[in-house]
Design brief:
Blueprint lengths: L1 H12 L11 H11 L12 H16 L3 E2 L7 E12 L4 E6 L2 E5 L5 E3 L9 E7 L21 E4 L9 H10 L4 E5 L23 E5 L1 H8 L3 H9 L11 E6 L2 E15 L10 E7 L23 H21 L5 E7 L7 H8 L8 E7 L9 E5 L7 H8 L4 E4 L13 H6 L4 E5 L18 H20 L6 E3 L2 E3 L18 E3 L8 E6 L4 H4 L7 E5 L2 E2 L3 H10 L6 E7 L2 E7 L5 H6 L1
Parallel strand pairs: 6-7, 7-8, 8-9, 12-13, 12-14, 14-17, 15-16
Antiparallel strand pairs: 1-11, 2-11, 3-4, 3-10, 5-9, 6-10, 11-13, 15-17, 18-19, 20-21, 21-22, 22-23, 22-24, 24-25
Helix pairs in contact: 2-7, 2-11
The structure holds zinc ion.
Length: about 600
């Protein structure tokens, strides 16, 4: 029934639009080129590059005059993710050479590696084994006795031998621990965050030291020693009788990811109380901290142009399109998630801590990897989540070769940010141009994308959204064989608040208007510039003389719908713009 009704609605009311692009390939390219630039370092969750990407998106949203939809009146929502390790209390590393002692500063000059079974403290002689490589052509351990000792090696730039493999080799040769000196590219220190255990083996310890520390302890020039080691030449020995005392203590590290959320209020007085979420993840795998598939010689930045600067760019351009055309009846919520590559963390966090009423979200559109269209091929997942999707997408899918809800090996169900929404009973549509040979590799570069394909997809999405947006009811949800009709949440009963404003009225004042005793900290009222002593005399078109007048206004107010508030301050009339927040923000801020 529902399906028949919706199909009839779709076919009767919406004429397919002309194929003229509604958003431009050039603007899409501009966003992708910035987001996927080396400057942003692969946008790893919590990294400076991820923050730069978020700041860029915020600027685009602001310039398009969208409203902040995050927490505490900002465009952002932060969330914690456990990732890797950091130096715990009571770690130390001490070298002794003859009568001299060198104490390494934890976190700067040395970083311990997590190993659950590492002994409390070890003291052992040190031996140097160059790059620590053992192959058929070469044996860096030849003539070196490492039994019961701690081996110092250089990490390899090209990772033909991983740190883990080097640790295993050292242990097989009888060493009781390994210390990596410098970084894979030379000076500095190995970044071991994200490496939860070089070698989980009883009695084996591991740590990294800085190139400077190496020089002090060995008396060797780091660069020269490293060059010789990389070339596989015979290495100068260490000064005799260097010992190291190492105690490693580590703890899990929390990093802070950041979602970006912007709101474009709807233009229909009734339908604007419902939301359409349009989302994409903005994070990627950085410098291969995790999730990297194979490295590329001389390039260690995973730019993530298709994954997912492409989807992010599409979200930004859709925001600009609707801001320009003012064609949306319902309120549009644009979201750029972080933490996707770490397990959909950002989108799950938002669904668990929404900044709007989830029950009023009629549909969620997810865009992940939409920049690699080959011969008009398009994957649309989420069709199962509503009985209306297949007809609707097919209606506008002329010229595309669409594959619906792929299953099996190529199944993308649940592998991107729409998953949490679908679990919450919200119909989802996921657009994707399929995986390719650059997927999660360092050569996922901006110049490889098909921007004309993105432009065409943008038009398809706008057409699909035009129906979702103009439907009289909410998009029905399908849970396996069961179709769930959805009704928007009822308007709150009299007195119940659906917005947070933050006014503290003064009771018993004779007027005129309503005297403010103050405003709440960080509230919309404070952000609008209201202060104690102001008298509110009008709210949009409604004259305010009593508390009841204000109550009347609040019962009808919608989150993010700017209101013009007229006040008397020191006898003079002035107007301010106040943007009410949803009450959920109160909880989030608490
Ligand atoms: Zn992705």
């Amino acid at each position: 029934m529902i399906q028949a009704w919706v199909s009839a609605f779709v076919l009767s009311t919406v004429a397919a639009q002309a194929p003229a692009p509604l958003i431009s390939a050039e603007s899409l390219r501009k966003h992708v080129e910035y987001l996927a630039s080396d400057e942003l370092g692969g946008r790893f969750t919590g990294s400076p590059g991820e923050r730069m990407a978020g700041d860029y998106a915020k600027k685009v949203f602001e310039e398009a005059r969208l409203l902040p939809g995050g927490e505490k009146g900002t465009f952002f929502q932060e969330f914690p993710v456990r990732f890797g390790i950091e130096v715990g209390e009571g770690s130390y590393l001490r070298f002794r050479r003859g009568a001299e002692t060198f104490e390494a500063k934890a976190g700067e000059e040395f970083v311990p590696v997590y190993n659950g079974d590492a002994p409390d403290e070890v003291t052992a002689p040190v031996v140097f084994a160059g790059e620590g490589v053992v192959t058929e052509e070469r044996d860096d351990y030849a003539g070196v006795d490492v039994k019961g000792k701690i081996v110092i090696v250089f990490p390899s730039a090209d990772r033909r031998l991983s740190n883990r493999a080097k640790a295993r080799t050292a242990q097989e040769k009888g060493a009781i621990g390994i210390v990596f000196a410098g970084s894979p590219t030379g000076a500095g220190i190995l970044d071991l965050t994200g490496q939860m255990g070089i070698l989980r083996s009883e009695g084996f310890v591991a740590a990294a030291i800085s190139s400077e520390m190496f020089e002090r302890v060995s008396g060797l020039n780091f660069q020269r020693a490293r060059e010789q080691a990389v070339a596989g030449r015979v290495l100068p020995g260490f000064a005799a009788s260097v010992t190291v005392t190492l105690k490693t203590s580590t703890q899990p590290r929390n990093i802070i990811g950041r979602n970006i959320i912007a709101v474009l209020p709807g233009h229909d007085p009734t339908l604007k109380s419902q939301y359409i979420v349009i989302g994409a993840h903005i994070d990627h795998v950085g410098r291969g901290e995790m999730g990297a598939l194979g490295r590329i010689e001389g390039d260690d930045i995973y730019n993530g142009a298709d994954d997912n600067a492409s989807g992010s760019a599409m979200v930004l351009e859709l925001a600009r399109y609707y801001s320009r055309t003012k064609s949306n009846s319902r309120t549009l919520v644009f979201q750029l998630y972080s933490g996707e590559e770490m397990g959909l963390v950002g989108s799950r966090h938002w669904v668990a801590n929404p900044t709007i009423d989830l029950k009023a979200v009629t549909a969620m559109i997810n865009l992940d990897m939409v920049g690699n269209m080959v011969e008009s091929k398009l994957i649309v997942d989420g069709i199962r989540s509503s009985p209306i999707w297949r007809d609707l997408v097919s209606r506008f899918g002329d010229g595309f070769e669409v594959e619906f809800d792929p299953t099996g090996r190529r199944s993308i169900a649940g592998r991107s940010d729409h998953a949490a929404f679908e679990s919450a009973g919200i119909p989802v549509l996921f657009f994707n141009t399929d995986e390719h040979e650059r997927y999660h590799r360092a050569n996922d570069h901006a110049d490889k994308l098909n921007y004309e394909g993105m432009e065409r997809l943008g038009t398809l999405i706008i057409n699909v959204l035009s129906v979702v947006d103009s439907m009289p009811g909410m998009v029905p949800f399908q849970d396996k064989d069961k179709i769930v009709e959805r009704t928007p949440p009822e308007a709150p009963a009299s007195g119940a608040r659906r917005v947070r404003v933050g006014l503290i009225p003064s009771y018993g004042d004779p007027g005129p208007g309503l005297l403010l005793e103050g405003v709440s900290e960080n509230s919309p009222a404070q952000k609008a510039g209201l202060q104690a002593g102001d008298r509110i005399i009008q709210w949009d078109d409604i004259k305010i003389t009593t508390i009841e007048d204000l109550q009347f206004v609040f019962e009808r107010a919608m989150p993010f719908q700017p209101a013009t508030v007229t006040i008397l301050r020191d006898g003079k009339e002035m107007k301010v713009t106040l943007i009410p927040e949803p009450p959920a923000l109160l909880l989030a801020a608490a």
